[in-house]
Design goal:
The protein is mainly alpha-helical. It has one domain: Helicase, Ruva Protein, domain 3 (Orthogonal Bundle), CATH 1.10.8. It is built from 7 helices and 2 strands; from the N terminus they run αααααββαα. The chain has a two-stranded antiparallel sheet with strand order 1-2. A hairpin with a 2-residue loop joins strand 1 and strand 2. Helix 2 packs parallel to helix 6 and helix 3 packs antiparallel against helix 6. It is globular. The chain starts with a helix and ends with a helix.
Amino acid sequence: MSSHRIFAMKFSSVYPLYVQKAERKGRTQAEVDQVIRWLTGYTQAGLQRQIAQDTDFAGFFDQAPAIHPASERVTGVVCGVRVEAIEDPLMRRIRILDKLVDELAKGKAIDRILRA
């Protein structure tokens, strides 16, 4: 298995970009946090701890309390690649997170984003 550069990227360096993207489209940091917590099972305190510890993406998802089972229903294209076609589990989780933030920024209702 090849190690992608993104696996070693600090989640804390990408998180503000997720927030900026959402805020540019009228969404809030709280909504970004809600989406991340839904996907990973982190509490708000746990999420803040991961950001403060400069955890990389591999560690962020390895330490996630519980990946939401409904995240398997996330489909679509991110960075020109179909999410459902990604075989590497870590890369797929990262792209699912990207897709959820994209949906948030595009104005999709939060309950639809969370596959409720």
